[in-house]
Specification:
The protein is an alpha/beta fold. The chain has 14 helices and eight strands. The structure holds S-adenosylmethionine.
């Protein structure tokens, strides 16, 4: 929802924009043009290769000789408050477009998709941390059940966990194809188009990348006692979420800010237009929330 994000965050020339999830630099390019050569763009991503692509794309999107000052940070956005203040800067605009980028899910080697066979990895930062295979092959059954139930909002979590534990006794589950096949063998396909493996893959991706923990840490940086470390007075902050667990966390944090005087720019959650949903199926579950802190 790039058009809505720009309209609600209303960047102005000379402002400092922080992109918590630079991805391929699509949103950041629009903001870079809006803040102009007197402005600053801070690109952040946990995926080093996407961060490099975002930098190149943002530069290419600006008029020759007209790019803003660009900083690139390879970090989890949980660390953004201190990373931004370490640069000696304060943000006028912060935007986070949560989850994974299209090039990550399309690359079988990243192990994010049940549509493409590949190693069962799922890490957005491929340089560190446990993979989905580590979790699936080593976690006690009750913990697997809990993850699949909570993060996947999957009713049949215990049945899936039991199947995975039985299967791994005969050899490690090491590919996305094998995991998807095991889940499909115990979850009936319901009438719709949703693959039975969807919710389990979402759950494992959230767990592998500690997505909710990182989000809570970033949201904590928006609290009244922390804002002045890295945000200018009047800073606009926007989150684009793709599932209810993320949206609930953002809604709660923003409600606290609104109670303390922040302005609810988006008036609750804005959804994607029908035209955008037609062009990009992922937009169906997108929710955009924007507030302006005073
Ligand atoms: C949906 S894409 C962003 C797309 C971007 N807005 C664009 O227009 O190209 C999400 C990006 O956020 C990154 N990401 C996800 N979780 C992150 C985290 N906790 N910290 C930093 N980056 C993260 C992913 O690596 C991915 O590149």
């Amino acid at each position: 929802m790039p058009v809505e994000a720009i309209r609600m965050l209303s960047p102005a020339p000379g402002e400092t924009y922080v992109d918590a999830t630079a991805g391929l630099g699509g949103h950041a390019s629009l903001f870079a043009r809006a803040v102009g050569p007197a402005g600053v763009v801070i690109l952040n991503d946990t995926d080093a290769s996407n961060l490099a692509k975002a930098q190149a794309n943002v530069r290419a999107a600006c008029l020759p000789g007209q790019p803003p000052q660009i900083h690139a940070i390879h970090a989890n956005f949980a660390d953004l408050p201190w990373r931004v203040s370490q640069l000696g800067l304060k943000a006028d605009l912060v935007f986070a477009d949560l989850g994974f980028a299209s090039n990550q899910v399309d690359d079988p080697a990243r192990g994010l998709s049940f549509m493409r066979d590949g190693p069962l990895d799922m890490r957005l930062d491929a340089s560190k941390g446990l993979t989905a295979a580590d979790l699936v092959n080593n976690m006690p059954e009750h913990e697997l059940t809990q993850i699949i139930s909570e993060y996947g909002e999957e009713r049949l979590a215990s049945r899936i966990a039991r199947k995975l534990v039985q299967a791994r006794a005969t050899g490690p589950i090491s590919t996305t194809g094998r995991l998807a096949e095991l889940v499909r063998s115990v979850v009936p396909r319901s009438g719709g188009k949703i693959d039975p493996a969807t919710r389990t893959f979402q759950a494992l991706r959230i767990a592998v990348n500690d997505e909710l923990g990182s989000l809570e840490a970033l949201l904590a940086g928006l609290g009244a006692s922390r804002r002045s470390e890295w945000l200018e007075t009047g800073c606009r902050v926007g989150f684009l979420t793709f599932h209810s667990l993320e949206d609930r966390a953002v809604k709660r944090a923003f409600a606290e800010g609104i109670e303390q005087g922040a302005y609810d720019v988006s008036g609750g959650a804005a959804a994607a237009s029908e035209a955008e949903i037609q062009a990009n199926a992922r937009a169906r579950s997108a929710k955009l929330r924007v507030v302006r802190y005073s």
